[in-house]
């Protein structure tokens, strides 16, 4: 984590902390008990913001630890991730299309791979903004890798943001929706397994993330030319 | 006596809230802005006795506001208390050279005493602008 990131974090924590202390000082002197509820709500909101930051940091630090690995079935992870995101987000009408081809299992930590896809699917759902959405999950096997695409027809990403979306704390969302760590975590997990991720997007049309994980090379895919 | 007018500039609603509560209790009239552009706009339209000014804000930060204020005859002499989480020496020094009158670093504790100290420092203990505040009631 860079020094910049750390000083950003300190600021993000100090702000709600200032709110908590300042409002508490006011509440302690308040003689009209009916006002206390609003002060308590403020304090709770601020505390939740801090706890979100701490939660984000925790998943951030977890990636660097060496954890148990197994042969991970990507299709199962995609299904589970979809389920998890659906539980957490109010999604109105999203059509989910799965185009799964047989792919090799990859050796990885299951939790981390799941985190990759819950983050990507969460972003996809958020990008649909409640409108009629369509999410396409597809997989296929290449010569020495497997490829997974997560594609949405949401708001899209402006060209000028495309090179920033994987940076820690880059976000265009309000603090309740995200703090800009999602794609950075995704990126760090994927590179940990020597994989790659690419984003393609058109504003107003949608976004596609393409992920590749290397396999031992004995996959059943056709030759792929000029790709790694 | 007409009440004194203060502009509270901070992008964080809850911070504006408790500052506003103290200032209103002390009899000040309080106006608010959520970013630098809004602050400069209000400074152009109204007269203020002093400002509480956050630094890290969208749409022009506090340093930019301070610089523009100090180069405009209308606002040149309005006292400013800078509120910020940037509490390193060189940040403070930067603040003073840009014309800040007093510095409060976040998270503040004992907000009332600190605010009052800053206000008294700017206006003198017996000045009208202190609004006869007695925090040790
Ligand atoms: N599927 C998507 N559609 C549109 N924008 C996206 C998508 N995924 C990511 N983004 C953009 O990238 C930013 C960073 O994403 P992320 O790192 O997950 O952080 P967060 O979701 O917390 O903002 C988002 O704020 C958004 O602007
Ligand atoms: Mg996200």
Keywords:
heterodimer, A: 228 residues, alpha+beta, Helix Hairpins, Heat Shock Protein 90, 2 domains, five-stranded mixed sheet, two-stranded antiparallel sheet, 20% strand, elongated, B: 137 residues, alpha/beta, Rossmann fold, five-stranded parallel sheet, 39% helix, globular, binds adenosine-5'-diphosphate, binds magnesium ion
Instruction: Examine the secondary-structure arrangement and name the CATH architecture of chain B.
Output: 3-Layer(aba) Sandwich
- Average the pLDDT over all residues of chain A and give the rounded result: 86
CATH topology term of the largest domain in chain A: Heat Shock Protein 90
Major sheet description of chain B? 5 strands, parallel
Structural class of chain A: alpha+beta
Query: How does CATH name the architecture of the largest domain in chain A?
Result: 2-Layer Sandwich
**Total domain modules of chain A:** 2
CATH fold-level assignment of chain B: Rossmann fold
Biggest sheet details of chain A = 5 strands, mixed
Give the uncertain stretches of chain B in residue-range form: none
Shape of chain A: elongated
Proportion in β-strands of chain A: 15-25%
By DSSP, the count of extended strands of chain A is 7
Summarize the structure.
Helices cover 43% and strands 20% of the residues of chain A. With 228 residues, chain A is of the alpha+beta class.
Write the layout of secondary structure elements.
The complex is a heterodimer of chains A (228) and B (137).
Chain A: H1 3-29, H2 36-62, E1 70-72, H3 74-88, E2 94-100, E3 106-108, H4 110-128, E4 133-141, E5 145-152, H5 182-192, E6 196-202, E7 206-214
Parallel strand pairs in A: 2-4
Antiparallel strand pairs in A: 1-3, 4-5, 5-7, 6-7
Helix pairs in contact in A: 1-2, 3-4, 4-5
Chain B: E1 5-9, H1 13-25, E2 29-33, H2 36-45, E3 50-54, H3 62-70, E4 80-84, H4 89-97, E5 102-105, H5 111-123
Parallel strand pairs in B: 1-2, 1-3, 3-4, 4-5
Helix pairs in contact in B: 2-3
The structure holds adenosine-5'-diphosphate and magnesium ion.
The site of adenosine-5'-diphosphate (ADP) has 21 residues of chain A, from helix 4 and helix 5.
